[in-house]
Amino acid sequence: MKDFEYAAAATLDEAVSLLAARGERAKILAGGTDIIVQLREGLREADLVVDVKKIPEIMTYRFDPASGLSLGAAVPCYRIYEDGDVAAAYPALADAARIIGGWQIQSRASIGGNLCNSSPAADSIPALIALGAACKIAGPEGMRSVPVEQFCTSPGKNVLRRGELLVSIQFPPPAAKSGSHYLRFIPRNEMDIAVVGAGAWLRMQDGVIAEGRIGLAAVAPTPKLAEQASRFLAGKPASEETFRQAGELARQSASPISDMRGPAQYRLHLVGVLTRRALAKAAERAGA
Amino acid sequence: MKSPLRKNKSKRLPSKANRRSVRRAAQAARRSTNGRTNGRAKVPKFKVLGTRPIRHDGADKVTGRAIYTADVKLAGLIHASMVRSPHAHARIVSIDTSAAEKYPGVLAVVTGKDFPNVADKIAELGEGAVNLAHLSANCMAKDKALYKGHAVAAVAAASALDAAEAAKLIQVQYEPLPAVTWVLDAMKEDAPLLHDDVYTDQMGKVGKKPSNVAKHLIFEIGDVKKGFASADLVIEREFKTQTVHQGYIEPHAAVALWNADGHLTIYSATQGAFTCRQQTAEVLQVPVSQVTVIPCEIGGGFGGKISIYLEPVAAMLSKKSGRPVKMTMTRQEVFEGTGPTPASFMRVKLGAKKNGKLVAGEAWLAYDAGAYPGGVIGPGCMCVFSCYDLPNARVDGFDVCVNKPQTKAYRAPGATHAAFACETIIDELAEALKMDPIDFRLKNAAKEGTRRVDGPVYPRIGLVETLQAAKNTPHYKSKLTGKNRGRGVACGFWFNIGLKSSASASVEPDGTVALVEGSTDIGGTRTSVAMQLAETLGIPAEDVHPKVGDTDSIGYTDVTGGSRVTFATGLAAYQCGLDIIRQMSERAAMLWDCKPQQVKFDAGVFRNGRKSITFKELAAKLPETGGGIIGRATVDPQGATNGFGAHIADVEVDPETGKVTILRYTAVQDAGKAVHPSYVEGQMQGGATQGIGWALNEEYFYNDQGRMTNASFLDYRMPTALDVPMIETVIVEVPNPAHPYGVRGVGETPIVSPPATIASAIYHAAGVRMRELPMAPYKVCKAMMEKASM
User: Tell me, what's the ipTM?
Assistant: First the structure.
């Protein structure tokens, strides 16, 4: 590792111009729990590291049941699960925030950082996809918004262009009679990377599922929305059979690889199991 | 190379002189303590042994003041970085170091060419022997890189970052060769050959053409054919295990200073300062007297810190630069460049009568040695049937070179593999014969007089008592209820060894004693050794201040390994105590104007008739009776005697994912005498936890180029605190007759049982027999699905 420059940007404009000037050689520092390790281990390189925690917009944390949650990109995970209102409104988000690393990590690491690290196995992303969150991005050409499921493009890569940075993640207001859940399978009980992760969100109406969304991790080059399985849920009863069938459909949208975290066949099998379990818990939380 | 058979045979019988000294020691111990009878044998009543004092090094450890090798700072210290092979097998065509040498801050560069050619010579390292030419080439490759992570060059610079950057500039031209990483593949006729000078040695008969199979061991007892013919039930199974690392928390580190006067001083995270000195001196071809090794605090070793890696490289960089040089490994370097325990393939067969009596056994064991011959197949062969009275048995063992790091000792090296195979079949036999698995084992348990397949006859051992204690645990007596749950049991065995130890101690005027001993402290041995001196002197444990000496400060002491320190170094401390008592008795005689023989010592008090003086009071009078007193002892005891254990596990298996949750776990073990029960329990819990790691998730993953893909604690999954329950412990005490306080080694045995214990529990929970380690969720899930589709 070579020495690098450090700059703490105070405004979005400053960050954008620093990032635009250095391009690939500049890296963003939020909680630092990924980037510092990656720089030390030579997995990423930087001439300049831009700390974004002094930028007010990036530390935004605003929840209103009517307008939803605006979660600044560098807000640490613990803020979410320690906030009863937010944890109740977006349980899948709180589920993910609770299992990203241990306490020390959760006091620094942010959901925005997890998203920008763009790991196919990221724990927060299936939850964000299930909850229908969107990314607010600042750049040289101003602000733009991208649905979370379109944010990651390949392992470690995303839609951020030269000079751009993630400002915040926007969550729609919690719907009545809705519930969500995120769970992952890991061989150990902590300190592990998801072999498969599944996030689910359901909204009930008139005794049936009105709409549902399923997000998956570690089964494709990017976390993804299981579209067919999600669409299938509308109008179905919240039953074991529905969830089993959704799990089968979710398997069809998965294209996992075999690696040290699990063989592809096993991962496919787990997609079915975890999707079913995530939906059942989400339904329970929705009061179905 | 000495075969383990011969080595063990030569150690089976204590020399006369040693037997005498042990007997004398035992008698003295009985004299100095108040005997108490429990109906069977006289059990001495101890004042210090069996208590739980605070460890002497505790404050330094919990406040972070303890000095580990990476903490060592010397004036002018520079830092070095290693260049390692990216290939699993490659010829080194050329190494261009010129760009690195020009990098700012660089002070020295070394490659294999800088190291002397060491002849093929075997050096005894205490727990195992090593071929010095292989040792040298393992520290720094010469013409071939034999595994990914093999050191090929090193660079020292003013800062660690400069060294790392300069290392990237070293241009190594490789000619990649086909690699072989699985033991059975390496045994094939057409397998890529690692060495053109390694021939199969079959019990002294050497093969004609080079082979990856370095050794074929054969052990036999009785008549195996007849034995199986007389069996009512024969079960034969195949087993596989994967490469597993010790996973000590402290990565290897060394600091070397090759002084202008030619003297070399090394600070190292080593398990044995003297062994480290010997290996380093041999690799560098300097006399041992020219080398001082200062052992620093050590963050775990488990057998993996006996061999040297960085020491000669740091020394050579220091010689070239004239500066003290520090080298530390990253975790990735530890995984890829140091010695794990082998992967193995095992085929084991056992035969029993309908009445549950074992009559014959056969084992075919192939363990990989890693890149160089000399793996742990020997003890594997000797352990496979070691828990049972097996009149007819044959064991074939193969030591096989593969393109992986050279395997090294790991806590009961070779035994855990073999026990996984043997104990799993024992469990199947017990089930087939409808016998309780503990009763089945009791019926066949090895006891005093049982002959092991490799020759030795057991002295007084405690397997029967251990099994009985296991049967009586609240855990085994409890009823396990609930779906997908099962209970397993398995035995474990380790030899334990004696070897050489030294201790010296000086009596302070305030009646405390400063103890220097030569065993690096991995498991709290400073305290367990100090307690034995305190017991001997009749003073509190806190009044002994123990220190681990460097190679110039204490007599020769073998490695901390083989579960030997509390036994052997404890014996040295005990004899050192007797030496102090003898000298103090002379001082008391001087005070009382009598003959030293008239002074009797008991429980910390010197007496002659009605006159008495305590150890403390007499210590205060030393300055006026001739000055200080130093006690000393150096020992090479026989009779370490074996450690036996039995483990019980309850598990629950997720029927959909195959994930195993351990609900309850109990470890039972014969400790001879638990000097510090907390440490014994700690060893049992630690060993069980490591064994649980082997059982459930730990393995090296290799890609098709022979490169390890999970060289980090994230993807090399050792159990965390959340993966194991509180491990219950039961200490059994069947005193070792060859130690004055009855001590047996305890450190290694507890890792042996867990894989077989958990395999048995999984079977009883999910109905599938797992015969491959680790029993990771994906494998258990696959086995359950296959069973369901049958």
Answer: 0.96
